[in-house]
Design brief:
Layout: H1 3-15, H2 27-31, H3 42-50, H4 55-59, H5 62-65, H6 71-75, H7 82-96, H8 117-127
Helix pairs in contact: 1-7, 3-7
Bound molecules: iron/sulfur cluster (2 copies).
């Protein structure tokens, strides 16, 4: 399997998204509040990841401009979840920059008594994938 295919499969694994479900209706991009700021729009992420065209997405400002508001996920009639793909591409770049996965043994020292347990569980779920 080529490295392009490997990267595509890894992003699909991390995100849990099946981009082949997309019917290219554009509703995700139509509802995105960061549309004007993003070089690539949510529907383009879905299409480009599906084709294994991931490098331009990694180089793009779009992964940092996305607000993670999940409006694109709410609006999608096929439950594709473009925001999850964007998050997976962003995490891939962060890891290439040398940031590690969140390890369970590092969690206790980050704990703050005021921190809601839900935030801890969410962070662990997100950064341990
Ligand atoms: S999660 Fe990101 S891509 Fe999706 S609608 Fe919000 S800003 Fe746009
Ligand atoms: S809303 Fe869903 S089905 Fe429509 S283009 Fe976006 S990801 Fe594809």
């Amino acid at each position: 399997m080529s490295s392009v295919n490997n990267e595509r499969e890894e992003i699909l694994r991390m995100s849990g998204v099946d981009p082949t479900k997309c019917m290219k209706c554009g509703k995700c991009s139509g509802t995105c509040p960061a549309f004007d700021a993003m070089e690539y729009h949510p529907h383009q992420f879905v299409s480009m990841v599906n084709k294994g065209n991931i490098e331009p997405l990694k180089q793009s400002n779009a992964i940092w401009q996305c607000l993670s508001c999940f409006a694109c996920m709410e609006r999608c009639p096929r439950d594709v979840k473009p925001a999850k793909l964007i998050e997976a591409v962003r995490l891939t770049v962060i890891r290439e920059q040398g940031m590690n996965h969140l390890e369970s043994e590092n969690v206790p020292c980050m704990l703050d008594p005021e921190l809601p347990q839900q935030a801890i569980v969410s962070a662990f779920r997100k950064y341990s994938k």
